[in-house]
Amino acid sequence: MTTHRHPMIAKVMAIAAFVLSSHVGPTAAASADPDNVGTNTRSGAATNGPYRRGPIDRKLHYLGHILIELFVRHLARRLLSSPVAAKVLSRLPHMPTRFVPWLASPATAWTQQIGEPPQEVRTVAGIQRDPAAEADAYDKTPLHYFFRLHADALAALLPVATMIAPAVTTAPRVESSTRQLVARQDEKPERSPAQTDPVMLTAELKKYAATLGVSATGVTAFDPKYTFAEYAGKAVGDRVVVCVLEQNYGATQRIPSYRSEQAALATYGELEDRMVALAQWLRDRGWRARPETYVGESMFIAYAVAAGLGQLGLNGQLLTPYAGSRCRLNVLTTNAPLVCDEPVDYGIEGVCDRCQICVRRCPVGAIPNHRSEHRGIVKAKLNTKRCLPLMMQTSGCSICMKVCPVQRYGAVLDEYRRSGQILGKDTDDLEGFDWPLDGRHYGPNEKPHVPASVVRPPGFNLDLTRTGPPADAPDTDGLIGGMFVLDPSQKHPASRTRGIRSYITWFTSM
Question: Reduced to 3 states, what is the DSSP secondary structure of residue 250?
Fold first, then answer.
């Protein structure tokens, strides 16, 4: 990482960057570009052209990354080593996200109809699976919360984790939502449920979710195989309500950047607020409902696929037909007799397999170009050992999201149906990005060189053969979203962690 010769100057620069990013928002140059203006064919997001940094903005982007590195090295870890300081940070006054245009979700329900996919891109409804193999894998090796299972690997990355910076600066808005959710998570209804028509109840629930601004809502059956072992037994019913909230369009086009990660975290907080309201709606009708925090006690993506909200991309993320993976997920369990939705073949798997832009554009080649069976699920299994270190050191990376044509344009299936072409493929409009580690722009036929020191930081050893967490792994009840309360005398993050796992839900096995 870049450092300044004079430590005091470095600290002052880091504090300045922190204060500016916390209270001012994006730079003046970035603010000049409006977000969420116009209408996307599918999602309602902006389509007034791609965001392009000029030479000055690109240098500012690079300088911002250096300042964030200094902040992480000289201030963040010391600040977060104090539980009191971390708690105060999470309670600082803040403007509600809906009033912050460079962070706010469009908060509009997706209503346009999705047409039938062409025959050549059809695969299966949802995802290819082998139920017997799934059950066998679960019996032999239940799923664990990823960063409890690999707490030592996380600890090795923390000294270089620039992702701490957006987590720190969004902690007030995100954690206020999480605190409210946790405070009401296990509330019980005050009345008994009346006789209910399941079809009508399900329709009314989805209608209410749409009025809250939830982009899409689906229902599926609870499956214990998708619950992390640490949270077994917390579900309150046999139904899972899955909610999707679209992420800020303009911020996403700036990936990889500090601002785009702020928007991702802020969207989680916005969705948690809506999950609290949706759970209360069910309780008011006599049914139990328990929303999960954005960290997740279960596999959100698996439930979303089962509820017909999208299909799995080669990048391991849920690709919705409206906005690709430019969205955040959350779930609640309930004993309400809701009607389950069915998985859908949107043609996304077929188009994704033909597209493969994310495979080609991944800076460290962590995305395979084919799918294979894993724990009974046919999916592209990412190379986590290469992806995780890069993600932690480049404000979340997420190049695979930025270059996805479904994320960028929405109407990819419509274009393929008309022309047989992948919209935007081989164009700088879609595939170009600015790389924070060197300040350069990389077009469709270029990729940045990633040093070995970034892919393999000192002490980083991710043992993917591990089947259970180490004895000294931290508790999974988090304190601050996206941050870590550190005890410098301990090998692992001490006592509590929350948040980074929500960025990479796809790392854990389905």
Answer: helix
Q: From the CA atom positions of the chain, what is the Rg in Å?
A: 22
Instruction: Give yes or no for a contact between 65 and 435, defined as CB atoms under 8 angstroms apart.
Output: no
35-49, pLDDT tens digit by residue? Answer: 333 335 444 444 445
Q: How far apart are CA 127 and CA 216, in angstroms?
A: 19
Which pairs from 45-49 meet CB under 8 Å and 24+ separation? Answer: 45/106, 45/246, 45/249, 45/323, 45/326, 45/410, 46/249, 46/250, 47/409
Which residues have a Cβ under 8 Å from the Cβ of 35 and sit 6 or more positions away?
A: 46, 101, 102, 248, 249, 250, 251
d(CA 281, CA 291): 12
Give CA torsion, residues 189, 191, 192, 198, to 10 deg.
-70
| Distance of alpha carbon 422 from alpha carbon 352, whole angstroms | 9
CA 504 to CA 507: how far, in whole Å? 6
- Our CA angle for 126, 130, 134, nearest 5°, is 105
Residue among 67, 92, 89 nearest 78 (CA): 89
pLDDT in tens, 48-98: 455 677 788 888 888 888 887 777 666 766 666 667 776 787 788 888 899
